[in-house]
Amino acid sequence: MNKHILLVGPPAAGKSTIARILVGALTDCSHLNLDDFIFRLSEEKSVVGPLQDAFIDECVSQMMLQLIKGRNVVVELPHHDYISLIKSGLIVLNDFD
User: Fold this and answer.
1) Which DSSP symbol is given to 87?
2) pLDDT, tens digit, 9 for 90 and up, residues 33-54
3) What is the spatial distance between Cα 85 and Cα 16, in angstroms, rounded to a whole number?
4) What is the DSSP string of 42-68?
């Protein structure tokens, strides 16, 4: 059975370290990190300065589209209001183990 694992926490809490351990332990596992999506989309759209919540939500939405059924996936969400993401439907907890 494949796992979708959600890691949430403040900066320097150890999310990336735990993600690397999990990716190493699970076969055929992807690591999705919100910071990577923010960086990529910021460059694509030439965004500079403070990031608006709507932009972060767009990055989360694009990241969630990457959840691949049939594969192990570790999703890392640093420093964002995950409660509002859940309430808005951008993150569906039932998608995770």
Assistant:
1) H
2) 988 988 999 999 999 888 888 8
3) 20
4) HHHHT--SSPPHHHHHHHHHHHHTT--
